[in-house]
């Protein structure tokens, strides 16, 4: 099987449902950013320390869910043959919320913004949080142009919160303190 199609030589790509779009299309940007995020999560997994290895399985599950999200975003709005994979009732958002609550209970209380960073794992998780936010912006832009699977948007919105909580928890696991933004007023209650 050849992995090249030559369609991209003219700046276009085929999506699920056989529509051919320019690679600069909003739909391509939305699932392309999800693909970038999935690759970043793979890098995070590959670089987990012995102390943060407890995150391995859940990060791998997030990769699986991100692939589902990307697949759904790659389905043409005109396609009537393919069904969305990602469902609102798949429990993914609830699972993330439980993880967020669990990790929030294990870190020092903060009322101020913190600087992204700390341990290597935490720094990478903060980077994943920002890429997730960019993916969310791309998905919202797509949603303004044509219908999407809104369950994907809900999951991606919660995922950025998960990465924030997991980053803070990683710092606790590594014994590294979060650094508060010096000019932050109390923002978290």
UniProtKB/TrEMBL annotation:
Keyword Magnesium tagged: no
PANTHER family named among the record's database cross-references: CORRINOID ADENOSYLTRANSFERASE, CORRINOID ADENOSYLTRANSFERASE MMAB
Entry's family note: Belongs to the Cob(I)alamin adenosyltransferase family.
Root EC class: transferase
GO biological process, one term: cobalamin biosynthetic process
Catalytic activity: 2 cob(II)alamin + reduced [electron-transfer flavoprotein] + 2 ATP = 2 adenosylcob(III)alamin + 2 triphosphate + oxidized [electron-transfer flavoprotein] + 3 H(+); 2 cob(II)yrinate a,c diamide + reduced [electron-transfer flavoprotein] + 2 ATP = 2 adenosylcob(III)yrinate a,c-diamide + 2 triphosphate + oxidized [electron-transfer flavoprotein] + 3 H(+)
Key word ATP-binding present: yes
Organism of derivation: Companilactobacillus halodurans
UniProt keyword list: ATP-binding, Cobalamin biosynthesis, Nucleotide-binding, Transferase
Subunit structure: Homotrimer.
GO molecular function: ATP binding; corrinoid adenosyltransferase activity
Residue ranges occupied by any Cobalamin adenosyltransferase-like domain in the UniProt entry: 3-169
Pfam family, one: Cob_adeno_trans
Enzyme Commission number(s) of this protein: 2.5.1.17
Pathway the protein acts in: Cofactor biosynthesis; adenosylcobalamin biosynthesis; adenosylcobalamin from cob(II)yrinate a,c-diamide: step 2/7
Protein name: Corrinoid adenosyltransferase
């Amino acid at each position: 099987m050849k992995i090249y199609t030559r369609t991209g030589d003219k700046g276009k790509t085929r999506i699920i449902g056989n529509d051919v779009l320019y690679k600069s299309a909003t739909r391509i940007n939305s699932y392309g950013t999800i693909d970038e995020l999935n690759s970043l999560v793979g890098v995070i997994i590959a670089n987990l320390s012995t102390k943060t290895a407890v995150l391995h399985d859940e990060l791998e599950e997030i990769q699986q869910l991100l692939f589902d999200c990307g697949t759904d975003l790659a389905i043409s709005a005109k396609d009537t043959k393919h069904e969305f994979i990602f469902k609102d009732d798949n429990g993914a958002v609830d699972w993330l919320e439980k993880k967020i609550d669990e990790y929030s209970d294990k870190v020092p209380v903060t009322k101020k913004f913190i600087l992204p960073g700390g341990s290597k794992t935490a720094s990478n998780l903060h980077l994943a949080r920002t890429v997730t936010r960019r993916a969310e912006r791309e998905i919202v832009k797509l949603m303004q142009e044509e219908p999407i699977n809104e369950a994907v948007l809900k999951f991606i919105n919660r995922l950025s919160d998960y990465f924030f909580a997991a980053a803070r928890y990683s710092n606790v696991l590594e014994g590294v303190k979060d650094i508060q933004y010096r000019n932050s007023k109390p923002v978290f209650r």
